Structures
1.
Amino acid sequence: MTMEGNFSDFRSRTVVWVDDLVNLTTAIGRVEHRQKGHLGTTFRVLADNISSRLGGGKVLLTALHVVRDYADFRSMELRDIVVRLDRRNRQEGIKVTLVWWSEIADVAILRLQSEPSMANLKLGEADVLPLARTEVPVKVKTEDGDWRNSRLFPVGFPRGGEMCIPLEETRFTERVNVGPLSLLHYLGATAPGSSGCPVIDESQKVAAIHLRYGDSTQSRVSAALLGRHHTNEGLSIPSLIQHVRNDIGL
């Protein structure tokens, strides 16, 4: 008779998996106002993985509402906004410019005006995050033949504090299509200041950009089963890429 069992669909993470995820977090940064402090989270990716029309190199993704109040959409300048790509808070903030934005998607693409020092990066630590090329499935099949919800991990700076990685209650609950956009709903600890953070899937690619916490469109029955009536919401990366390419080209 077995004396051990797993009475939930929560899956533990290996130390290697967690270590690999931590190595990715060096490409995640804070969006700050020089006087007002922390506004949200951002992350760095290769521009060509989104569209060749973005000018190449590396760009930053964040939620538009994080920087909207400080943006001059004519000059593409962001007044008093800096990005600090350093989870240990040792580097100075770097000024950024606006590259592309979308009101309907609530997403902004930024570019650093100067390169951060790579001296603090250790072997294996990332300076860009890999992007998911296909939509993450809501359900995946386990080794036992059962089905469980996929897991999504919003990694950011809730309330402007230390970078946090939720590891429990991170279920991907539903995908909602709103016009041309695909929105993902998922559990996981977030707070003001998390907006714009990467939502990383189990293969450690960015599946979505976190936008907000709010009401779920799912039924009260399924919400009751999950123990909540509210959820996180993010824009899927494949949907964002298609949205950018529809606007400015491949």
2.
Amino acid sequence: MIYKEIVKQLKDFDDLLLYNLESEIKKEFERRKTECFDTYSIPLTTIQENKIITLNKKYIPQVDELMLQEKIIYGNNNKKKEVGGERGVYNNFVKLYWDDMVIIYDFLFQELNILIAEKNYFTTKAGF
């Protein structure tokens, strides 16, 4: 997932990139990032006493990350709960998250290109 690597590197430059932009554009950029995270993030979980406990923190899982799940196993006149894991359950959502993040950063670069054009940063000048 090359998109993920590109966006992760761009996140380091958020402050630098946003420095010259208007506050409304900064707010829109941050709003879109927050909305994207809220759409695709999942609650962090842990295991305690063979039960899955959901924590208050949310995150974006990695592709093929092991996700905890409770499984009910039916046997001879009884059923038993087991905690296990399954890989790749959220892969589609993870890919959608990173695709949306590329679109959001594309919005940022669009605004930066407009700013560069308005400021005439790359006009040709005599070099003698």
3.
Amino acid sequence: MNTLAVATGNSNGAIAPNARRLLWAGWVAILAAGMGFGIRGGIFYNWGEEFGFTAAQLGAIGGAGFSGFCFGVIIGGLICDRVGYGKLIIFAFALHILSVVITFTASGAGAYASLYWGMFIFAYANGTLEAVANPLVATLFPDHRTHFLNILHSGWPAGLVVGGAIGLLLGDRLQWDWRVQLSCYLLPTLLYAGMFLGQYLPKSQASQQGLRLGEMLKDIGILGALVACYLLALFARNALGMPAPLSYGLAGGLLFIVAAMTRFALGSLLLFVLFIAHALLGAVELGTDGWIQNITGNILSSEEGKFLFVLTSATMFALRFCAGFLERGIGLSPVGILLACAILACVGLNLASGIVTFGGAMAALFVYATGKTFLWPTMLAVASDRFPRTGAIAVAIMGGIGMMSAGLIGTPGLGYAKDRFAAEALKAKDPALYEQYRASTPSRFLGFQQVYGLDGKKLGEVQAQFNQERSALAEANTVPLSPQARLVHEASVAGDRKTLKADMFIPASLALIFLGLLIYFTSLHGYRRASFES
């Protein structure tokens, strides 16, 4: 137990008297990020219908909402102890305001660019705030990191709940413009700024000990930097349009700089594995979150999809307060928690791919939500426990890798899968009808074959007709869905189901990795928090 914690009479091992206020200030900041994410997922349909985007284009816009986070959290993690947490919070607040201004300029041919960069700036602000909040909470509660990092990150699903509720009320019920819905996240933005104002923010133990940046990077080394640099190369190619030689050349140059700063230290193999796992985790958790409203709303109805999103997010919010019980009450190690969660997430996605009724969807998504609940914050806790000499940097890079993977692999990958599987289903049923609904812009993803999905505007019209036909409030003179339109809708649903099936293999891979880590720690006589001197 930390001596300062004893002196202040804090039974949770907090090292500062204002620890609780800082915890909840960080919680509100992450709530703002979750609200923006949840609202955006609900208005994907509006953007596709208004601007005629394909699923791949929408996935790329959603991906910018993750890629920007990576730059914010990594750059913020590298400089936070030098620049100061307070200045980074002010900077993030300004970016949150700027992102709204840019997003609201979306119109005509420039709509894609406005939405893409508006989301990127929004995500950069979120990443900057998390670069502050994660190491801050890990420093404030050194003896209970798994518990309090899970509490901190319960702000994310809480934001998703509020964002989803805004979509249900202001979007579906009141039919308010998507711009009004999106601007609602500015309310918690103002609140977190006020909560952080005037507070003392302690630095990480590594920074207090005066370690230089090169020393903090040694455990990350060449192996850890390799993961981050590869994703940065993908960003340069996919988002900035750089030629492959230039993007990989820049990434290689950055890798060399890290290697030189650490005197060519290879880095920890364990941390390298954790980085790989977090890349997979970001792709499946946040990538799926970005599409799940759209997918379940298409299979069932738009309103039911949003309600399910709120329900699963509320499940995550409640369960994230139970991490301490799982660890200290039941006796699960953080790695044991990760293994159990990966298995549940795999089962949940498999069940979700076959949903037919709203009740069945609730059960399937409850399993999936339970599985993904503890993954992200517990991974951060493991990195903080095992690599204290990295200060704020390891958790910052880990968060950046997860978000970058979600933005470059998870969200656009699922968008590509939706386009591909829906196109294949419609082409198999009626090739001529497929040509009629085929998008003019091809969908691409990494090295996979390009495909032509279904046109966003035309598909949106079909989905609107289908939802109207199913609604009990539909007028008596509503024209029934034509056989051709029904085929298009069925193909879209088939594509969604197959997308969830493919998505299931990511948590299955994570389960194998965590099983290996559990065996590794068992061979070391159990999971333990590493000391700063070791």
